């Protein structure tokens, strides 16, 4: 019976791939402020990163700072800096901000757009912030620039689809399922390559969550076997509550959870605070697979150094 349930869940996962709603093109970009952008106060840099993120998300793109090879990067130069003849005096800045979209791994520039921004503040920091606040995601020039960048990204995937599939197959052969998922789930739905990779995404997702289920069940079981007190229960519960319901060993996870919950009830006379995940049929397989990739990326050292020097 359990085997039938697992098989049924597998077909739910793979069939949902075909039902993925194209709420956007499936393109991912990372907002990236290079070290070369010097002389900007820290708080202004934070505002700049915020504005870049808005440009990405308000144009129907996913802001993926963990797994994207494509970046939206800025460069800022000061055109003029003046002190106003007011009481009290203020700083007036005229900035030239150039935005770039490109392949941050290969260093290939796809599109660029410059805008002039003016800001006035009681000091230079506040003048920078006032100017950067004027960087609007709705600016027609920026909208056109983003569309051009999106077209180039889609073109990249259409051209390199065979190589992407080969890379994913090589990663899968090394049991690097999450890395392979990252590679394939970054393929935009709007590309012709997506139809070639979507069935593979379902298979890799299932392999990934099956392995994750097995590892987490073993870890939680060892913790609980070593010391069956409240602390061990909570430590095991933290692990079990993160297991995906589609995992092949989820039935065993539920059994262990029930044993621990009953023991917690005996020890403390109250219900256990941990809850297992339940199957969310509204979440598409692509979204679930992307979530696995993002979670994996968050837990990896941030070692990617984007190559944007030739863009300026």
TrEMBL record:
Keywords: Signal
Signal sequence segment: 1-18
Protein name: Tetratricopeptide repeat protein
Lineage: Bacteria, Pseudomonadati, Bacteroidota, Flavobacteriia, Flavobacteriales
